[in-house]
Amino acid sequence: MDRDVLTQALEYADLTAYQVDAYLTLLEMGVSPAIEIGREGSVPVSQVYDVLRSLESKGYAETIEREKLYVRPCEPDSLIEDLESRGNCYRTPPRRSTTGTGSRSRWTPESESRSASRRRWRTRAT
User: Do the domain assignments include residue 104?
Assistant: First the structure.
């Protein structure tokens, strides 16, 4: 799966930048000690346990208690299916509202020429 598409989907699912990075690193590494996820990714080692536990609570990973804390990623395909069931909004960025335009239309050269022709018509008609 394309990393950019997966990143966009995870951001749509309201994961933080650290959670996204930890999950993608986890997918690349497979089952790994939690500390290694922090070392390989951009998540600070001091926060990696909290980030991975939050991923577990959201259903993106599973932790395994051994002599160290190991983490296993959940498959991204099932997560993508879950996001798709909510709607396809993550595939295209949401539209930004244009504030300040109201019902007015923007000026374009074409609108200027239409306005000029209306003015000429009005002056001829009177």
Answer: no
